[in-house]
Amino acid sequence: MATRRNFFKYLGLAGGIAGGGVVAAAAVLPDSDQAKCIKEIESTGFNGKLTLGAEYGELRPIEPNTFRFGSQFVSGTERHVKASMTVGPDGEMYLLTNGKWRRIVTE
């Protein structure tokens, strides 16, 4: 009985991995309409785009009885990252990560 449960557990895991691979492949494959939409998004600049940013780095130790003004990171370890999201001319969502626009697949 226990081996039958393990078989179905791994069968479900394999199906999930295979399904995820299909979705990932659909998101990466180039599409001529998608390329046209990305060119149009890039030509509009930052009109109508939601941009989120964050800072990462090594934190400076807090000295006792002091207030922290300015940067809280050790100099030279700061990293500023951002991502933008917008609606394309085709009505689909697009995400800008690492300087590259990609369509978000929701199916």
Protein described:
The structure is a single chain. This protein has 107 residues and is α+β, with helices and mostly antiparallel strands. The chain folds into two domains: 1-30; 31-107, no CATH class. Helix content is 36%, strand content 23%. The chain is built from two helices and four strands. The chain has helices at 2-28, 32-43; strands spanning 50-56, 79-87, 93-97, 100-103. Strands 1-2-3-4 form a four-stranded antiparallel sheet, covered by helices on one side. A hairpin with a 5-residue loop joins strand 2 (79-87) and strand 3 (93-97). The longest helix has 27 residues, at 2-28. The protein is elongated and about 60 Å long. Mean pLDDT is 77; it is low at 21-26.
N to C succession of SSEs: HHEEEE
| Fraction in helix | 25-40%
Q: Number of DSSP helices?
A: 2
> What characterizes the major β-sheet?
4 strands, antiparallel
Class from helix and strand fractions: alpha+beta
Short key terms for the protein model shown above:
107 residues, alpha+beta, four-stranded antiparallel sheet
Secondary structure topology:
Blueprint: H1 2-28, H2 32-43, E1 50-56, E2 79-87, E3 93-97, E4 100-103
Antiparallel strand pairs: 1-2, 2-3, 3-4
